[in-house]
Amino acid sequence: MSKKSSVRKSNRTNKSTRHTYYGCSTYLFRSKESCSYHVIKLELLEEAVLKAIQTQISRVANLEQMMEKISKETVILEKTTYLTDQKMKLQREITKFERVSSDLYMDWKTEILTRDEYIQLKSEFSEKIVQVKAQLQQVLEELRLQDSKEETIQPYFEYFRKHGNITKLNRQIVQDLIETIYIHESKEITIVFRFTEQEQEIVALIK
């Protein structure tokens, strides 16, 4: 969106008033076929963004209170313990499947299994090993992330807390807290805040 201004003169008062708005850059400067000429007044946009930031700050404050009630350390420890148990379980499964897969060769050589049975079972256990190893890799990645969660949670709260009680927008606040603002043709506004990954982690911990 591009910022534009226009001056309008009132027939009734004969006074000129400057109006500032944002218009679609694609329509204005690139191609009128690629988008429509949708605009939004600056004051309406600022009002919506301010309200959204206030709501988000309130949401973050509520999340922080919930985390304090259930104790961040306890939740993180419980999740780490669960993931560690899962890791050990998957490692045991891999060892078991690899042992069985290895024994199949001897069963074939001693004619307990036919060649076709050996090939089929060998393929099935190989597939199982690949699947369990993929699950193990995912658990290991989650364990790695667990180690850094405590380090990312507190700064997230502090970042929004320092902008608490905001009553007026300024450029710095918008840059600090907002990733992208989408203005739709219907004049609806979608705001994507920064730190969504940290917020999702916190919500998952609380659940």
Short summary:
By secondary structure, the protein is an alpha+beta fold.
Please describe what this structure looks like.
There is one protein chain. With 207 residues, this protein is α+β, with helices and mostly antiparallel strands. The protein contains 6 helices and 5 strands; from the N terminus they run ββαβααααββα. The radius of gyration is 29 Å and the shape is elongated. 4% of the residues are buried.
Keywords:
207 residues, 67% helix, two-stranded antiparallel sheet, alpha+beta
Tell me the distance between the termini: 38 Å
Radius of gyration: 29 Å
Largest sheet: 3 strands, antiparallel
Mean pLDDT: 82
Topology:
Elements: E1 2-9, E2 16-23, H1 25-30, E3 39-41, H2 42-70, H3 72-109, H4 115-161, H5 171-177, E4 178-183, E5 189-193, H6 196-206
Antiparallel strand pairs: 1-2, 2-3, 4-5
